[in-house]
Amino acid sequence: MSGIYIHIPFCRQACSYCDFFFVTRDRLIPAFVDELVDEIRHPSVPETGASSKNLSDIIRDYWFSTPVKTLYFGGGTPSRLDTASFERIVDAVRDRFDLSALQEFTIEVNPEDIDRDWLEGARQAGVTRLSVGIQSFRPELLEFMHRAHSSEQAHRALELIAEANFDSFSADLIYGSPGQTRRQLEEDLNQLFRHEPPHISAYSLTIEPKTRLGKQYELGRLQPAEGDDVHEQYRFITSALADRNIHRYEISNFAASGHRAVHNSSYWSHENYLGLGPSAHSFFLPGWQDEALRWQHPPDIHNWRQPAECEKLSGEKLAEERIMVGLRTTDGVEPGTLYDRYGYDLSEAQWECIGQFREKGLMEPGNTLRLTDSGFAVADSITLRLLS
């Protein structure tokens, strides 16, 4: 089975931290929808060399014949689409792909865009799960992040989502903003808990180049939060959510029982997915070989369907990716899976590192490579050492 990701790049305004591809010109939406619908009917596939024609046909045949497991609209802000445009895109997907076994249909939304009619339209189109960008309820933090919604709009959106009775929904929070205190974070969580979200994604604020915050940092006008403070906020979030039976299953994702994000989990286990729209990634691992293909559409609202460059990933590269991503999950990594799927054996030096991590209480004992709570706090450094 496979997944489909559709990138809707439109946003009301630019958030100060965001480095995803987006545009703020809603007047381009009609032409974009026309082009996207055409791409859904005739997906772009990569150029892979002399045998690309044959392989391109194989890839297309795979997508058109394999049941789709998950459908995800991300962005950007897909809720910038009106109901008619959204339904037109979904209808095109249903006409071209096999959705008979669809397990999850997610769309990202922002509080300022949605009302009862919009949510009902999403339900009628088949959406089963919403991911809503809250980030904070504090006015000063919303202003700092240049979010388009107010605290009141965030609460109202969550109330409407609860009333709409989707199968599941997730709320995004950002922590680790400069000057943010633990008390402020606790207040944000308590306000969010009023709405009983079954899934929460909590992301540490990252200052990326070419963003508003990145430019302020380069000019010396902004200093990131202290690392120890950020780690303490993360530990607090993990504990507070666990107290409400919302448990971490990936370093930034927490879910009540039965509410894990199926689409994102598929990424982490190297399941095939097709990306449609500007800047979207695709991944294809044929069953008859240990080499995978990954490609990305250009981040261009007008010319994203130009031939995409294709990256070939060896079994060793795939195994290292699986280790890197798997250690960020509570399921961890099975060494047997690394060998069976990628032909990858952990080296003697890697096993020695693993033994040291276990002695320090950073990795749990047993056959599975799985981090402890202390290990999650330094997951990146553990992965870097293990793969260096």
UniProtKB/TrEMBL annotation:
Tell whether Endoplasmic reticulum is among the UniProt keywords.
no
PROSITE patterns found in the cross-reference section: RADICAL_SAM
One of the entry's Gene Ontology molecular-function terms is: 4 iron, 4 sulfur cluster binding
The residues covered by the Radical SAM core domain are: 1-250
The protein's name is Heme chaperone HemW
Query: What Pfam families does the record tag this protein with?
Result: HemN_C, Radical_SAM
In the UniProt record, the gene name given for this protein reads hemW
Gene Ontology, cellular component aspect: cytoplasm
| Keyword vocabulary terms for this entry | 4Fe-4S, Chaperone, Cytoplasm, Heme, Iron, Iron-sulfur, Metal-binding, S-adenosyl-L-methionine
What is stated as this protein's family in its record? Belongs to the anaerobic coproporphyrinogen-III oxidase family. HemW subfamily.
Where in or outside the cell it occurs: the entry states:
Cytoplasm
> What's the main place this protein lives?
cytoplasm
Its annotated function is as follows: Probably acts as a heme chaperone, transferring heme to an unknown acceptor. Binds one molecule of heme per monomer, possibly covalently. Binds 1 [4Fe-4S] cluster. The cluster is coordinated with 3 cysteines and an exchangeable S-adenosyl-L-methionine.
Q: Which InterPro entries match?
A: Coproporphyrinogen-III_oxidase, Elp3/MiaA/NifB-like_rSAM, HemN_C, HemW-like, rSAM, rSAM_horseshoe, rSAM_sf
> Which BP terms does GO give this entry?
porphyrin-containing compound biosynthetic process
